[in-house]
Amino acid sequence: DNGEAMLKHVLRRSPKNVHAHFILGTHLFWIDQESALAVPHLETCIRLHPNFLRAWGCLGALYKKLGNSQLARK
Fold first, then answer.
1. Distance between alpha carbon 44 and the CA centroid of its chain, in Å?
2. Under 8 Å between Cβ of 48 and 54
3. DSSP characters over 7-67
4. Cα-Cα end-to-end distance for the chain
5. I want to staple 59 with a disulfide (CB 3.0 to 4.6 A). Which of 11, 16, 42, 48 is the partner?
6. What's the chain's Rg over C-alpha atoms?
7. Average pLDDT, the chain
8. Measuring CA to CA, which residue among 35, 26, 13, 30 is closest to residue 56?
9. What distances in angstroms separate CA 44 from CA 2, 7, 59, 65, one per listed residue?
10. What is the tens place of the pLDDT at every residue in 25-50?
């Protein structure tokens, strides 16, 4: 969709844009149900901004959905 394409364009120009990674990762996880594609965006978000609690929460839910309870608890 257009929003997803725009976020990918933003990330090509600014690969360290934490908010673009977060929005795209959550969109891929919750809306598109593409969990495997969402993981790298949310992990990048956490790596760039370790105190981003909403990203941690989404990443935990994502790991749980993928069946990795150990990473979800971490």
1. 7
2. no
3. HHHHHHH-TT-HHHHHHHHHIIIIIS--HHHHHHHHHHHHHH-TT-HHHHHHHHHHHHHTT
4. 33
5. 42
6. 12
7. 94
8. 26
9. 22, 14, 11, 19
10. 999 999 999 999 999 999 999 999 99
